[in-house]
Amino acid sequence: MICTLGDLLLDVIVRAPAQLARGADTPAETRIASGGQAANVAAWAVELGEDARFVGKLGGDAAGELARSLLERRGVEVSGPRADGRTGVVVALVGPDGERSMATDRGVSPELRADELDPSWFAGCRWLHLSGYSLLAVPIAEAALAAARLARDAGARVSVDLSSWSAIRARGPAAFRARLEELAPDVVFANEPEWELVGGAYSLAETSVLKRGSRGVVVHEPDGREEHAALGGDVLDTTGAGDALAAGFIVGGIELGLEAAARCVAQLGAVPA
Fold first, then answer.
1. Residues 19, 25: Cα–Cα separation, whole Å
2. Which residue is catalytic, options 7, 11, 237, 243?
3. Number of domains the chain is built from
4. pLDDT tens digit string along 195-246?
5. What pLDDT band is residue 120 in, cutting at 50, 70 and 90?
6. Does pTM top 0.90 for this prediction?
7. Does 243 participate in catalysis according to the annotation?
8. For residue 24, how many other CB atoms are within 10 A of its CB?
9. Residue 135 domain-assigned?
10. CB 3.0–4.6 Å: which of 49, 55, 186, 260 could bond 5 by disulfide?
11. Nearest CA to 145 among 105, 115, 100, 103?
């Protein structure tokens, strides 16, 4: 069982073939799906043949019910307390080159508290994957650290994706790194700007995976570093490629991670088509 903790959001993906016309209409392709980094990793883990459980605070509104049902239809077990507040929404704007910019509203997700965790949610987990966003706000940061302790008590390994250089910079890189050191993850995933902000993620974990987009990845391990090329193919949308990579790495290693990432960028949206 792969467990993840973080946000369950509603993703609205908008792909426009050209620049948006200011003050006018622009034809676009759209998609609605469950979203949030931790939820995406769980969805890809199931797609790759593993059982998966997502843990997070869930909004009780219509958007929350939709996000939950979309994730459960993918075979992910969804656990966590309900809240009266609204579910977060991410609007991903995808350009003609496949690059995306995201407008993110996390809703009630950051309100998850450590005392709301049920130890049974982490029973049977061989791996707990945390979104870096879960370490960037309170009280969910304390919940993430508590979840890591519960998972390790059950024999699980712990990984974290640093998630967002802009959010790390806003939070403060030193404070974020201190929280990472407290977490002491077994594996860290980071892109180049995140890597630089925390001063080199290779020193934070036994294994670090540096994501370099079309230039592939570098895996740092105690016995050295190894570069792996990205798999070729058309790029439609880069949204969720890092989540697919993380899921593949957790399930079966870096080669499976690269295969999942290649599948992800060839489709619209962050979860398996």
1. 11
2. 243
3. 1
4. 999 987 778 899 999 999 999 999 999 889 999 999 988 888 888 999 999 9
5. very high
6. yes
7. yes
8. 6
9. yes
10. 55
11. 115
